[in-house]
């Protein structure tokens, strides 16, 4: 019973959604369409509104639906797109009335839309393929429908990015996988649908049904608690619209949840609410589904009389009982429930009806099997006759062959000779291909060795450069810097005892120049080997570097994000040199007034971004100039196995660099 209800519900969902979804606020939607057909001066807009009205009324008032459809065709005139769309809505109109006509209409729409370009045509084409697949599933089976969606419908919608149609198609594909009990695949496609619709169409009916599909997928896996959050989201969407027919499906899924968590009283209350909407909107099939669930609950609660009455009502209503398999199931349950209640005569009566119908269905199946066997037999007889005729023909052919034996021998020799030539040619081509492949592999190995040598050379150059910088910085700071500082101190002491500041201003001017020289010398030493990097780490050193380059007319905004203080010193030093070169280029050449520098770390990756509002430069300067700065920058980036992207124009320059801390 539970499995039958699951399959029936999903079939209804597929059929409903194949015929189109309408906004949850249905009254406002219909009023706006009617206002458009009455007042809009544009005939194409009117035609589209008529088509949508036809789609809405096809299950409510087929006469009105047909009238709206024809009006849409009339106002569309000779417009090719509107004509193609007409065939799509004609297929929707015929979908429940004449499946063959509907199939032909969808094929016409597919042919017409395939010749048109643009997003609207592509999205309608995707929906046409889906609707055509739904019609053909009874003949071809669900594999054909799923293949049509994966190879035709979804790829067509994907050409124009993510949107409502693509989200809808993913949700429908998930529903089909749920029907076939492939719940994990259904979950993946439901997740895709939700990601698209929540981001692109957060208030759409497509999202509402995607929430319900996801909730039901979990419930059919006995994971109702996981589906509850999606059921609640659907409830929040439909709650402001108590007059919407979509409430029927919300309450059905809500009842499904309560049944799954064994809260039978709450399930019965929810079923009553759902029945209210199903009756209000004449949704007979949904009413029967509610009754089936109600019967199942009554049976579990041992309310057998009420359960029996429900089954008899379902049988009398005939909506579900039209299908012989459904009727057989109802007979079986009526027999079972009467037996439980002690009504053995009624139980026997229903069991006889069940057996008679079951025998009838089996007999029908046997007839089908007999027809198949008869067809096979006739086919076998035909094959025997064909074989006999072939034998006669072969006998005559053998006589002809005997008369021409010499010719055949010669032909065979020639064929063998040609085969030998082909064989030798294939061996030659194969050997040639192998030789070429070996040459390619050899060149690749040579290239790899060359790259490794270049990397080793770059590493040695950079490490030697840094060692030399460190040595020169130490000599300047500790040696020459100390000596000049001592000279300055001696001069200052001597002048204070022997000179008059007012009379010997020239001497004090020279003393000031000496003081500036000491400061400049220390600045040069710090640039060669920044002490703050050695003492406090990369982030502090970069802050100091930005403060050094800041000017009255130049503002530098530095942002450091998650920089690891335990990075190896050589990695920190290389990153510092890269940013030093970037800032120096921006300050020296760009004439910028604002610079944004961002340095962040994510795991083993370091991301550097620098933006300025300067005058920019030619992006091909590396190929047209012998700039040492850019070459050094590229060498350091390659040393850390990084990537550098430069975007520059007259409005400024942006440079993005990605480095790997394990890159050396």
Question: Concise description?
Answer:
This protein is of the alpha+beta class. Helix content is 77%, strand content 6%.
Features:
single chain; 5-stranded mixed sheet; alpha+beta; 77% helix; extended; Heat Shock Protein 90
Spell out the blueprint of helices and strands.
Elements: H1 2-18, H2 26-39, H3 43-57, H4 62-76, H5 80-94, H6 99-114, H7 119-140, H8 142-158, H9 164-179, H10 183-200, H11 205-219, H12 224-238, H13 247-260, H14 264-280, H15 284-300, H16 304-317, H17 324-341, H18 344-403, H19 405-498, H20 505-528, H21 531-536, H22 538-549, E1 555-561, H23 569-589, E2 594-602, E3 605-612, H24 621-624, H25 628-639, E4 643-649, E5 652-660
Parallel strand pairs: 1-2
Antiparallel strand pairs: 2-3, 3-5, 4-5
């Amino acid at each position: 019973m539970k499995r039958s209800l699951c399959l029936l519900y999903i079939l209804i969902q597929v059929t409903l959604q194949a015929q189109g979804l309408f906004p949850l606020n249905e009254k406002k939607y219909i009023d706006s369409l009617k206002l458009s057909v009455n007042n809009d001066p544009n005939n194409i807009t009117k035609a589209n509104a008529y088509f949508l009205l036809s789609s809405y009324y096809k299950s409510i008032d087929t006469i009105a639906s047909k009238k709206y459809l024809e009006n849409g065709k009339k106002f569309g005139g000779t417009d090719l797109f509107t004509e193609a769309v007409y065939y799509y809505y004609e297929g929707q109109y015929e979908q429940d009335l004449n499946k063959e006509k509907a199939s032909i209409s969808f094929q016409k729409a597919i042919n017409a839309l395939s010749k048109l370009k643009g997003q609207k045509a592509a999205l309608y084409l995707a929906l046409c393929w889906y609707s055509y697949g739904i019609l053909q599933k009874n003949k071809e089976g669900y594999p054909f429908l799923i293949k049509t969606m994966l190879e035709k419908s979804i790829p067509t919608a994907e050409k124009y990015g993510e949107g409502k149609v693509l989200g809808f198609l993913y949700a429908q594909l998930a529903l089909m996988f749920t029907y076939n009990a492939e719940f994990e695949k259904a979950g993946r496609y439901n997740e895709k649908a939700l990601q698209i619709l929540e981001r692109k169409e957060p208030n759409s009916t497509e999202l509402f049904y995607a929430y319900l599909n996801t909730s039901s997928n979990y419930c059919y896996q006995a994971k109702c608690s996981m589906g509850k959050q999606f059921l609640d989201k659907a409830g929040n969407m439909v709650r402001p619209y108590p007059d919407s027919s979509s409430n029927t499906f919300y309450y059905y899924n809500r009842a499904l949840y309560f049944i799954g968590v064994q809260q039978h009283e709450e399930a019965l209350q929810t079923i009553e609410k759902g029945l209210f909407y199903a009756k209000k909107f004449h949704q007979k099939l949904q009413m029967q589904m509610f009754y089936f669930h109600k019967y199942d609950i009554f049976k579990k609660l041992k309310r057998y009389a009420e359960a029996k009455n429900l089954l008899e009502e379902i049988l009398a209503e005939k909506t579900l009982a039209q299908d012989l398999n459904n009727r057989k199931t109802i007979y079986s349950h009526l027999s079972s429930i009467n037996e439980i209640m002690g009504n053995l005569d009624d139980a026997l009566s229903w069991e006889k009806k069940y057996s008679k119908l079951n025998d009838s269905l089996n007999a029908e199946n046997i007839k089908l099997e007999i027809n198949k066997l008869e067809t096979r037999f006739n086919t076998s007889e035909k094959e025997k006759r064909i074989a006999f005729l072939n034998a006669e023909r072969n006998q005559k052919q053998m006589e002809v062959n005997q008369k021409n034996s010499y010719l055949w021998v010669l032909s065979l020799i020639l064929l063998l000779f040609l085969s030998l030539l082909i064989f030798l040619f294939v061996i030659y081509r194969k050997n040639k291909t192998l030789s070429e492949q070996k040459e390619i592999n050899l060149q690749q190995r040579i290239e790899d060795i060359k790259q490794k040598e270049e990397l080793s050379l770059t590493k040695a150059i950079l490490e030697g450069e840094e060692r030399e910088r460190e040595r020169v910085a130490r000599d300047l700071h500790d040696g020459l810097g100390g000596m000049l500082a001592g000279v300055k101190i001696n001069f200052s002491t001597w002048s204070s005892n022997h000179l008059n500041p007012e009379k010997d201003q020239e001497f004090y001017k020279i003393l000031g120049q000496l003081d500036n020289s000491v400061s400049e010398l220390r600045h040069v030493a710090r640039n060669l080997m920044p002490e703050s990097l050695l003492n406090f780490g990369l982030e502090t050193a970069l802050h100091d570097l930005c403060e050094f380059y800041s000017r009255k007319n130049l503002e530098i905004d530095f942002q450091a994000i998650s920089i690891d203080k335990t990075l190896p010193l050589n990695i920190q030093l290389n990153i510092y040199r890269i940013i030093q070169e970037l800032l120096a280029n921006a300050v020296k050449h760009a004439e910028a007034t604002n610079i944004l520098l961002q340095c962040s770390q994510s795991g083993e990756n370091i991301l550097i971004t620098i933006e300025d509002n300067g005058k920019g430069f030619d992006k091909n300067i590396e190929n047209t100039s012998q700039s040492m700065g850019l070459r050094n920058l590229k060498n350091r980036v390659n040393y850390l196995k990084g990537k550098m992207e430069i975007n520059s124009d007259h409005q400024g320059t942006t440079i993005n660099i990605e480095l790997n801390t394990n890159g050396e």
